Amino acid sequence: xxxxxxxxxxxxxxxxxxxxxxxxxxxxxxxxxxxxxxxxxxxxxxxxxxxxxxxxxxxxxxxxxxxxxxxxxxxxxxxxxxxxxxxxxxxxxxxxxxxxxxxxxxxxxxxxxxxxxxxxxxxxxxxxxxxxxxxxxxxxxxxxxxxxxxxxxxxxxxxxxxxxxxxxxxxxxxxxxxxxxxxxxxxxxxxxxxxxxxxxxxxxxxxxxxxxxxxxxxxxxxxxxxxxxxxxxxxxxxxxxxxxxx
Amino acid sequence: xxxxxxxxxxxxxxxxxxxxxxxxxxxxxxxxxxxxxxxxxxxxxxxxxxxxxxxxxxxxxxxxxxxxxxxxxxxxxxxxxxxxxxxxxxxxxxxxxxxxxxxxxxxxxxxxxxxxxxxxxxxxxxxxxxxxxxxxxxxxxxxxxxxxxxxxxxxxxxxxxxxxxxxxxxxxxxxxxxxxxxxxxxxxxxxxxxxxxxxxxxxxxxxxxxxxxxxxxxxxxxxxxxxxx
Lengths: 246, 229
Prior knowledge:
The complex is a heterodimer of chains A (246) and B (229).
Chain A lengths: L1 H4 L2 H6 L8 H9 L10 E3 L5 H4 L2 H20 L6 H13 L4 H28 L8 H22 L5 H15 L19 H6 L6 H32 L8
Chain B lengths: L5 E3 H26 L21 H9 L5 H22 L15 H23 L29 H22 L3 H5 L1 H27 L13
Helix pairs in contact in B: 2-3, 2-4, 3-7, 5-7
């Protein structure tokens, strides 16, 4: 083992040892791609659970849980009306732990909506949106909206009654958007050109709608969320870490 | 901030994050083992659910459908909420209370925010637990088999009176804060002041409208050929 640890291969992967020195503690953060989003040192105050409730971090962790479980679910799911529901049933009855996988994906999503709201509440109550963090609050609001959209687009995918009629309620509201919805005030488009048509890929919920919601859910929205999460975290560092009393 | 108060992120914070992640994973797995995500019969356009409830985080908006037209409840109100949330840091000029819990220094901001936040939660709560077939009020232990009366006697205000009411309502928001606190207006500057008061007036219009509907059966305060409020 000692020899291996001093081999070129080991050293090319792990650049430093474990010794508990000040220098090494800093290197452990700075030389690790997953940890380097942190600064090497932070004010004691920023570590208090009573201050942050850990809600931002938990929300991010839930996003990772959603990504991992979501990718696993993609192995079993086909976004076609003929198969979608059967694939969920297959997950439930035939895939080992398939039902647990789906439950994890659903409950983590619900929890994520709750934790992101609580995170926003915490940031507001601690006045953490004040200068210089104004823009990061706006990025946060964007992430909140993306979280809602991710949750919403995931809803249709099981293709059961609950999914179908929940999306019906949602897209019927879109139908009455002012100007760009065909039943809304000041409508300038008919039902074949309005925003609901664009969302559903038709005038009714069918195969096109399922595919669109699927692509939005697994690619478009997560990519957008990932970019904004990156900006959000980067901004925290650039704005001098999480907020503290002035 | 002096140097002594700083701590190394590794291992203290990194381990705390790790432990939180482990704890959360355990909680999620236990939750996923104990409770199954809902799955009903296969989707059928021919058979509509009654009530068909939106996902719970949107039930608050769905609950607003009782009191507002769909484009208000589903589009305008959410858009106002999102835009107003996003511009908060640019409206709030209070330099105090940054980086700590400080209700006493930011009463105005905190009270109004908590009001909006609670309204969101309460509407979801009512929509999720207290609504049954035809979106009528059902207590959680009441059977949905018993169909409730749909009868409602709703009326709308005369357009002139409605317009006066709306105008008076918004004027009240413009004038009242200036009367209660003299420096309010000065602190915000004219444009910021108008935006803040418009936002607050819009937010408090929701409970006002709900009250008017429940107490007096008023469907619309203002009816126009183009839209109703």
